[in-house]
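ZP: hey, is the pantoate complex queued? I don't see it on the tracker
AM: it wasn't, my bad. submitting now with these inputs:
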Amino acid sequence: METVKTISELRAARLRLPQPVGLVPTMGYLHEGHLTLVRAARSECASVVVSIFVNPTQFGPAEDLNSYPRDLRRDLQLLEKEGVDLVWAPEAEEMYPPGFQTWVTVEEIARPLEGSMRPGHFRGVATVVAKLFNAVQPQRAYFGQKDAQQAAVIRQMTRDLNFNLEIIVCPIVREPDGLAMSSRNTYLNPQERQAATVLYRSLSAARQAYQSGEREADRLRQVMTEVIQNEPLARLQYVSCADADTLQEITGRISGRALLSMAVFVGKTRLIDNFLIGEENHAPGY
Ligand code: PAF
């Protein structure tokens, strides 16, 4: 496994890789969710490139850029074991040199949900992912369904900017008690870690209601809200029952695929999670 830092080293190493090349973009501090993406890439591509970059432009001023967990040595050991060919771990100055002034802004689909709570977040994500795609030139790129809106934004950008690659979105990987894997779970103390299952419990309750025939989007939002409100350590930021393709909030009855999603603070840690309902086992694009 080769590890490079600069864009010119990356380009030289990329030229030597057999095609198709699969890219797994990450911010490091890898967990089983990332490794599942790496394994999917390994099984479908001749070469696998993993990028590790805590992208400053997708963090808001009051967010956790400085405290975001980092452990490059451990990440490299894990990736070596997975048979990754090339790791690209650039410095912030390499990605955003002085004078940088070009941004990628995806519009409608980036506005609701995370976009409304984290202004500028998707501009940072779309910009860095476009830069990763340009530099690595992969044939496939792998993302997790946990960041459902991020996946939708990247698909839209890939289409709109004619990137010649396939976006693959892999299912959420969960702990045995249902908590979706996330590098931010390491912020939780033992009581908060227990309370954090509330996201999964809340989504499960709404899915159960849907499976029992409930089709009113408002009612599902209410079911999710009630479960969160019953958890003393949790503070709800939003719950949503949205059209799975447009991410617009559903008013009235659910007819096609819907994305149930939420952001919840457990203590100071902000967690997100989602379930797809309606045709979920053969949902194109997710
Ligand atoms: O999902 C992430 O880890 C990041 O948002 C990504 C896609 C690597 C861009 O920085």
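AM: back. The radius of gyration is 19 Å.
ZP: great, adding it to the tracker
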